[in-house]
Automatic annotation (TrEMBL):
<dbReference type="Pfam" id="PF03995">
    <property type="entry name" value="Inhibitor_I36"/>
</dbReference>
<protein>
    <recommendedName>
        <fullName>Peptidase inhibitor family I36</fullName>
    </recommendedName>
</protein>
């Protein structure tokens, strides 16, 4: 009986361990599906850098919603570059991030990150508006963000 325990335990452990996709494979999957150019170990860009996808480290992406404490900690380290506006796949400015630099613009393609859960306008002037269909969900003035929203289907800037 003791001889069977080592044989059973590793099989059970490997069945319970989720498969982890390496970052390079994720980058290549994005390029295969959406085009773009790899510009960093976890980054794909389009339109000569006007749109940048930053893929979050897998260990920072958790299934389900994040806690209020995690959202606060994440908001404190928000990293939307100056002069840009960003859409994040998770609340609290977490998960995969799309960074936009061109304005005026309307963006409706978020399939890479899913429906954005938080947005940030890190420009020195102008507004970013988030919509669900034609319903206005948020208006962000320069330097402002919303760390927890849902149902965003369109982002515009002016």
């Amino acid at each position: 009986m003791l001889a069977l325990v080592p044989l059973v335990t590793p099989a059970e452990a490997s069945a319970a361990t989720p498969s982890i996709t390496p970052m390079q494979e994720q980058v290549e999957d994005v390029i295969d599906e959406h085009g773009g150019v790899q510009t960093g170990w976890n980054e794909v860009t389009w339109d000569d850098g006007a749109i940048i996808l930053t893929i979050a480290r897998e260990d920072s992406i958790k299934a389900g919603t994040i806690s209020a404490r995690a959202a606060t900690a994440s908001a404190a380290r928000d990293n939307c570059a100056a002069g840009k506006y960003c859409a994040y796949g998770k609340a609290g400015y977490g998960g995969n991030k799309l960074t936009y630099s061109s304005c005026p613009a309307t963006h409706t393609s978020f399939s890479i990150i899913g429906s954005p859960r938080s947005i940030k306008n890190n420009r020195t002037s102008g507004t970013v508006k988030a919509y669900n269909g034609s319903t206005l969900k948020n208006t962000l003035t320069a330097g402002k963000g919303n760390s927890n929203t849902s149902g965003i289907t369109k982002i515009t800037c002016a």
